[in-house]
Amino acid sequence: MEKRELKRRLALILLAASWGGTFPAMKIAVSGLDAFFFLFLRFTVASSILVLILLLTGRKPYPNLKGLGLGVVVFLGFLFQVFGIKYTSAINSAFITSLNTPLIPLLGVLLFRKKPGLKAIFGIALGMVGLALLTEAYRVTSTSIGDLLTFICAFLWALQILLVGRISEKSDALELAYSESVSVLILSALFSLSIGEKWIRPENSIVVAVMYTGVIATAFAFCIQAWAQKVVPPEFTGLILLLEPVFASIFAFFILQETLNLVEALGAVLILLSVAISM
Fold first, then answer.
1. pTM to 2 decimals?
2. Phi/psi at 80 (nearest 5 deg)?
3. Using DSSP, how many helices (H) and how many strands (E) does the chain show?
4. Res 261: pLDDT
């Protein structure tokens, strides 16, 4: 593996960590805010940060069409995830959402005729076993409409990762991240207003959650993803992002005092091993 690709894979681990931190942050935020109003605030912060960086680097903050299209995919992913979790358990939602990892190589073959290597397939299989243990999805005995909605969310996340891999090759990472953020910002505002959500002034603890998710888990994360996927294949990106629930567990332990049992800890270890194999 080239040194350049290794750096970008390590950057994707930081991305997974930043997204893992959104779970406790969002749990705090949605306790006092409606879901899509929170998304509007999150992406307003992200877009503002990205506009500032664009201006400081002498570029004009004009969103491009490909980035706006990616933002539509991201918003729809959030939409199906939010409504899906209303009709299914948190365990089901976490596991099904992460099915985007095996969906990435499948969609890659169907859409772009790109076959994954054996190393990627083995890593994904091991990672999914670890995820099943970490989320205790193996205990699930029934499905619901919420599971279907969440699976559509997983499909959309997989599609977004694949499209970023294609578009980022000929796009500026910062401009692409900005365009995605603007698209989600606008759609979140329109949807929030259309369903009658309350727009209220958030409390201080919620402001911290909004700032974290906006600055770190969106502005920083979108830039890192676009930059890293110029080199890292989508199937390995999806595998590395399986670390997200592992980091979520770590953050939940320190922030919410939630702990893992022995089986869940074994699942986390298997996910770590699957990512190590891919490096």
1. 0.85
2. -70, -30
3. 14, 0
4. 81
